[in-house]
Amino acid sequence: MYRKHYAPWFGNLATMTACLFAGTLMLAEWSLGNTSEMTPVYGGALLLVAWYAYRQYVRRAYGKVVERRAQRALKRAAAHTHWQARFNVPCASGGDIDALLIGADGRRVSVEIKSWSGLRVARGQLVKLNGKPPFGDPIGQALREGQSTGAWPLLWLPAAGRRGRFTYRGVMIVMGDASYLMQVLGRY
């Protein structure tokens, strides 16, 4: 089910706030001598959970900023081509499609925007430039979004340092700015 105000980061903020409050309270009680010797361990563990939730929130917030900037850039770039751009299109498989491009000839491209600095294939697996696998299943997500709209799936990394493109498991992966994305689409 599509929810217009989908906010997965809200759980990160709630977890961070609760753990920060409880951990700080436990450490304060321990410093007053009112609790057992294990209290600082539990309090410290809660503060670590709060730190982890904060890092997840920052990652998601950065991703949303990159997505919004990329959508604006794509809107400007598409205005000078035969492509029409629609953004945050509800997807039957859940969530939304970051951008749906519709060509004058009826071709459709579903664009999933990611904030990573690049992707590559190593030993047959898709990995980020640091060699670690990407979070979640971006290829599966792009394929589901493309299938739900009858569009060609594309994964776009507008924050990538270098331009490049390749296909992995039926998904075109484009690294570079919006003008490069439009240039790649002009070839297909």
UniProtKB/TrEMBL annotation:
Domain of life: Bacteria
Keyword Membrane: yes
TM segment ranges: 12-32, 38-54
Keyword Cytoplasm attributed: no
Record key words, sorted: Membrane, Transmembrane, Transmembrane helix
All residue ranges annotated as the NERD domain in the record: 63-145
InterPro entries, alphabetized: NERD
Pfam families: NERD (PF08378)
Protein name, UniProt field: NERD domain-containing protein
Lineage: Bacteria, Pseudomonadati, Pseudomonadota, Gammaproteobacteria, Chromatiales
